[in-house]
Amino acid sequence: MAIEVQNLNVHIKDNHILKNINLTLPEKQITCIIGPSGCGKSTLLRTLNRLIDGTEGVRLDGKVLVDGQDIIGSGPEITELRRRIGLVSQRPCPLPMSIFDNVAYGCRINKMHKRHKALIYAVQKNLKAVGLWDEVRGRVRTPAARLSIGQQQRLCLARSLAVEPQYILADEATSALDPISSKTVEDLFVSLKNDYTIIMVTHTLRQALRIADNVVFMYLGEVVESGPAQQVFHHPQQELTQKYLSGAFS
Amino acid sequence: MLRGRIVKDKMAQGLMCLLTILSILFVLVMAVGLYLKSAPVLEGRSFVSLITSSEWKPMKGEFGFLPFIVGSLWVTFLAILIAFPISLLTAIYLTEYARPKVRKLVFPALDILAALPSVIYGVWGMLVIVPWISSHVAPHFMDFSSGYTVLAAGIVLGVMVLPLLVSLFIEVFSSVPIELREASLALGATRWQTAKKVVLRKTLAGMLAATVLAVSRAMGETIAVLMVCGCVIGIPKGVLEPCYPIPALIANNYGEMLSMPLYESALMFAALILFAVVLVFNLLSRIILYRIERKEA
Amino acid sequence: MKVNKSKRIEETLFKVLMWVAMAVVFGFVISVIWTVFSRGAKAMSWDMITKLPGGGFYIGKEGGFLNAIVGSLYIVGASTLIGLLISIPVVFYLNVYLKKDSRLAYVARLAFDVLFGMPSIVYGAFGFSIMIYFGLRTSLLGGIIVITLLIIPIFIRSMDEATRNFPRDILDASFSLGATRWETLKVVVRQIAPGIATATLLSIGRAIGDAASVMFTAGYTDSIPTSLSQPAATLPLAVFFQLSSPIPEVQDRAYAAALVLTVIVLLLSIGGRFITNRFSKNKL
User: Fold this and answer.
1) Which of these, A151, A182, B158, C181, is most buried using a 10 Å CB contact count?
2) Which of A45, A83, A109, A161 to mutate to test the interface with B (most CBs of B within 10 A)?
C-alpha cells in the first residue's frame, strides 16, 4: 500500500525535469514535498497519477510502483490508476454542474453505485467528510461555481474522496485560500491520514512543519533529502537542506 | 513643428473614426437600400402572404416565396445534418486528442476546403455528387432522378460549411480551461468522457452559436447550390426532389428582372429576407461568442 | 474490472468515429481536388490561358478564356488595393486609438462580423440596385466596388486578430519617445506586416473566387475591358456560364477555367499558411 519511486527520470522535450528520483512514500501518512518553485515538485506529483501524459513531448523512464505495480509505460489502465489516486489541485476547479453532480461525477464515470439511493448516500457521506454538508444542505442542486473558494476546494476534496481512492495528491491545495479556509482544509488532511496515503506539495515550510510525517526536499529536479519530518527539519543531513530551511533561498 | 504633428495626429484620428463609423453605417445603408427596393412588392401584399403563398407567376404579378423559403430550409437543414457530426468529432479529436503532428496534417486540409470558391464546389457537385445520386441513390427509391436534388445541394453545402464549423468548434472548445479537463481526468474519466461530460457541457452555448453561424452561411451560399439544386419551382417533398433556394432564385433571374414590373422589387425582397435572417443569426451568435472569448481572457 | 470494460469500449468506439470523421474530411478534400485536376487537365491547353474567345467560341470553336483571367486580375488587384487603404486605418483606429473596452470598438467589430457573414449574393443584389440608382451599367467599376465592399470585412477581421495579440509594450515604447499615435502607425504596420500579408492573401482568395456578386455588377464579356465603364469577365463566371452550355467542348473550357481558379486559390492558401507558420515561429 505504498508508493515506491525507482530511478525515475522525466524529460519534457529537451529539458531534463526530474533526475533519477528514488523515493518511498509510506502508507497512511502525510508526506510533504518541499523545495523552491521550479524544482519539479508538481511534475513529480503529476507523474504519480500520469496526468503528465497530457504534456506535450514528455518522456518517462524508470519505475513507479503503486501497490507493487509499475504504472510507467502503456500497460497499466491509466483511468483506473487515477481513480485510485485522488488529486486536489492548487486552484479549486469545480466542474460546470451542480454541487451534487460534482461529487457524483466520478461515481457515475466509474459506474460505482448501481442504485440511485446508494449514489445519494455516497454524495452525502463525502460532503459530510469534508464538513460541507451542513453548509450546502438544501442547495446541492445549485451550480458549484456559486460556492466560496474555500468551499469549492472542500468540494473538490469530497469529489476526489467519492471515487474511493487510496491515495490523495495535493498540489499546494491551500495556497489559493484565505487563512481560515486554509486552516480548515489543512485540518481535513490531517484527519484523513488514518484512511489515506497523502502526498502533498506545499509552498509553506510552516505547513509542512505542522502536518508532515515525512518530508521530501527537492532542488533542481533532484531529491536532496527525504525522511521523517522530525529528522529532516531538526537534523538535516545535507547542507542544501539546511540552507533552504534557514531561509537562505526560497 | 510639434503643433503640426499634433494636428496631423488629430486629423488622422478624425479620418479613421469617420471610416470606422461609415463601415458600421454600411450595414444600415444596406438594410435601408434593400427595404426601399422591395417596398413596391410589399405594397398591396402583406409580408405574411408573400412568404406563405406558393404561387409564383411574375408575369401576373403574383409572388409567393414559400417554395424558395422551404427549399432554402431543406438544403440548409440537410447541410448542417451532414456537417455537424463530422465537424464536432473532428474538432473534439483535434482539441482533446491530437498531437501537434496530426494537427499539422489536418489544418491544411481544412484550409483548402475553406479556400475553394463556391463555383468549384459546384463543379465538383455536378461531376461527382449529382451523377452518384442519379445512378446509385435515387434508383432505390424511384424510377428516375436527374440527380439535381435537395440531397445534392445539401451534401455540397455540408462540405462547404465543414471548415467553418470545425474552426468555430475548435475556438469554442479551446476556451475550456485545461484545469477543468484535468479535474475530470484525475477522477478516472477517459478522454471521451471528459469531452462529453465537461467540455461539451460547458460549451453548449458556444456550440449553438457556432451552428447558427454555419446555418446562416449555408443559407446564403449561391453558386454551388444553384449548380446542383435543379432549380424547379415547387415545394420539395423529399430529399430526392429538386428545389430552388432563395439565393439561386436571385442569381438565376437577375438578367430578366428589369423586364417585368415588380420583378426586380420581388427579387430585392428575397435579398432582404436573406439579409435579415443572416443579420439576426450573426448578431446572436457573435454576441454569444464574444462573451465566451471575454470570459476566457 | 467490468466497469472499466464499458468505459474502454465507449472510448474506443468514439475514437474510431473521430478517425472516420477525419477520414471523411480528407476524402472530401481529395475528391474535390482530384475531380477538378483530372477533368481540368484533360481540357487544359496553352491556348486556354493565352487567347481570347475567338469567333464561334461558344459553339466549340477555338479560343481561350484570357478575358476572364485578365478581368479577374483587374478586379481583384484594384479592390485589394482599395481594400487595404481603407482597412489598415480602421484596424489601427480600433487597436491603437480606441481603448480595449471601447463601446465603439465593440459595435464596429460586431458590424464587421455581420458584414463578413453576409452572403455575396446580397452584396451583389445591393450593389446592383445602387448601380441602377446611379444609372451605371454592369462594368469593371461596379465589380471593383462590390468586391471591395465584400473583402473589407475579411481584411479588417483578420488584421484585427493579428493586431490584437500585438505587444502593447512596443506602442508604449514608441509613445514614450514622444511619437504621436499617427507616427506610431509605421511601427505597428511593420510589426504586423505578416498579418497584413496573410489577410491580403485570404482576401484575394475570396475576391477571385466570388461569383454571385460580380454576376450582377461586372457582367460578362468576351473582350478585355479597356475602361472602367466596360463590363469585365471573371474566372468563376467563366466556369459557371460555360458549364451551362450543352456543348462538350465549351464545358471542357469550364473545367480548364476551374483548374486555373483552383490552382490560384490553392497557391494563395499555401502562401498564407506558410507566412503564418514563419510568423509564429519568429514570435517564439
Assistant:
1) B158
2) A109
Distance of CA C77 to the CA centre of its chain: 12
Which CATH number does the domain housing residue B280 bear? 1.10.3720.10
Q: Please tell me whether residues B179 and B240 are part of one structural domain.
A: yes
Burial string for C233-259 (b: 16+ CB within 10 Å, else e) reads: bbbbbbbbbbbeeeeeebbbbbbbbbb
Tell me the C-alpha to C-alpha distance, in Å, between residue C282 and each of B103, B108, C194, C275, C278: 20, 20, 11, 11, 6
Query: Which residues lie below 8 Å from residue A35, measured CB to CB, with a gap of 6+?
Result: A41, A217, A218, A219, A224, A244
If you search the block for the grid coordinates 423559403, which residue do you land on?
A: B69
Q: Within this chain, do residues B17 and B95 fall inside the same structural domain, yes or no? A: no
Instruction: Give the start-to-end residue ranges of the domains of chain C.
Output: 2-43, 57-283
Average pLDDT of span C70-87:
94
**Least confident window among A63-67, A162-166, B258-262:** B258-262
What is the architecture, at CATH level 2, of domain C57-283? Orthogonal Bundle (1.10)
Distance CA B267, CA A35 (A): 74
Poorest-confidence range of A177-186, C76-85, C159-168, C252-261?
A: C159-168
Same domain, B257 and B116: yes
For residue B258, the tally of other CB atoms under 10 A from its CB is 11
Query: Which domains occur in chain A, in start order?
Result: 3-245 (3.40.50.300)
Nearest CA in chain C to B274: C122
B257: domain range?
A: 50-296
> Hey, are the CB atoms on A109 and B188 less than 8 Å from each other?
yes
Cβ-defined contact of B186 to A54 (cutoff 8 Å): no
Report how far residue A118's alpha carbon sits from residue A120's, in angstroms, rounded to the nearest whole number: 5
Quote the minimal CA–CA distance from B77 to chain C in Å: 17
Question: What residues in A contact B190, CB-CB < 8 Å?
Answer: 79
The predicted complex's ipTM stands at 0.91
**B151 with B291, same domain?**
yes
- pLDDT digits over B126-137, tens only? 999 999 999 998
Amino acid at B268: M
Q: Are residues B134 and B62 in the same domain?
A: yes
The answer to whether B112 contacts chain C (CB < 8 Å) is yes
Residues B152, B79 share a domain: yes
Average pLDDT across chain B, whole number: 90
Strand, coil or helix: what is B290?
Answer: helix
Cell digits of residue C112: 464587421
Q: How many CB atoms lie within 10 A of CB C283?
A: 9
Residue B82 is placed in which grid cell? 451532414
Mean pLDDT of A138-159: 92
Q: Do B188 and A106 touch (CB under 8 A)?
A: yes
The order of strands in the sheet holding A30-34 is A85-88, A167-171, A197-201, A30-34, A214-219, A222-228
B with C: how many residue pairs have Cβ under 8 Å apart? Answer: 257
- Torsion C214-C220-C223-C226 (CA) sign: negative
* C-alpha closest to that of B267 among B248, B243, B284: B248
**Residue C115 with chain B: CB contacts under 8 Å:** 23, 26-27
The verdict on B173 touching C (C-beta cutoff 8 Å) is no
- Which residue, among C7, C9, C11, would best test binding to A if mutated, counting the most A CBs under 10 Å from its CB? C7
Q: How is residue A229 written as a grid cell?
A: 519530518
For chain B, the domain total comes to 2
